[in-house]
């Protein structure tokens, strides 16, 4: 073997050694990254915006995989956890689903039934009433005969709100041109049979139905003499 051949063999061996060194370096970097990132786990991301107090369903989320160490311990990893839940606030598209974003949907108690009525969005709700709230229901009725004063009554006290729907534009009937189009919100209550009848009657025959949010705690009883109001009798 002449000197030129020996140099060629030496260069070839050096190339092989350098390649092995580079390969070992790549493996070392990969091992280091894997040790820092860790294994991947399942998480769920919002596919679209979800409004507050909306019931949750599987089609609102997409399944993704991400490193466990980058995922909050509060993250939802199984969509079975959202069964019977509602959004507690606005859930934005692209956000990872967390357990503190949802709450249990209010349920009926023994002897209660669900009743939904439409409430004026501006005067009846104003964004303050949410599922789980307790409200008093006020209704204003016209006098029974011409000349009789209008009367405001508390129809139901401490009505428990189960659900607040989306704002809907209500159009007056063709034969009721005096009324203007209004925005209303469907409110679902948990009520006894008698209170369900009262609130349904008010929705059908009252000039206006309003909800008053009841502060939690304390005595919320309304005396009988304070349940009816007429301006003429106000002193």
Walk me through the structure.
There is one protein chain. The chain is α+β, with helices and mostly antiparallel strands. The protein folds into 2 domains: 40-104, Type Iii Antifreeze Protein Isoform Hplc 12 (Alpha-Beta Complex), CATH 3.90.1210; 113-233, no CATH class. The chain has 3 helices and 11 strands, in the order αβββββαββββαββ. The chain has helices spanning 3-37, 121-125, 193-205, and strands spanning 40-46, 61-67, 85-87, 102-104, 113-120, 134-141, 151-164, 168-170, 182-191, 208-213, 228-229. The strands form 3 sheets. Strands 5, 6, 7, 8, 9, 10 and 11 form a 7-stranded antiparallel sheet that branches. The chain has a two-stranded antiparallel sheet with strand order 1-2. A two-stranded antiparallel sheet has the order 3-4.
Give a quick precis of the structure.
The chain has helices spanning 3-37, 121-125, 193-205, and strands at residues 40-46, 61-67, 85-87, 102-104, 113-120, 134-141, 151-164, 168-170, 182-191, 208-213, 228-229. The chain has 235 residues and is an alpha+beta fold.
The structural domain count equals 2
Note the overall shape. rod-shaped
Residue runs with pLDDT of under 50 for 5 or more positions: none
Q: What's the count of strands? A: 11
Determine the N-to-C terminus distance.
124 Å
SSE order, one letter for each helix or strand:
HEEEEEHEEEEHEE
Main beta sheet, described? Answer: 7 strands, antiparallel
Structural class: alpha+beta
Estimate the strand proportion: 25-35%
Helices, by number, come to 3
Name the average pLDDT. 80
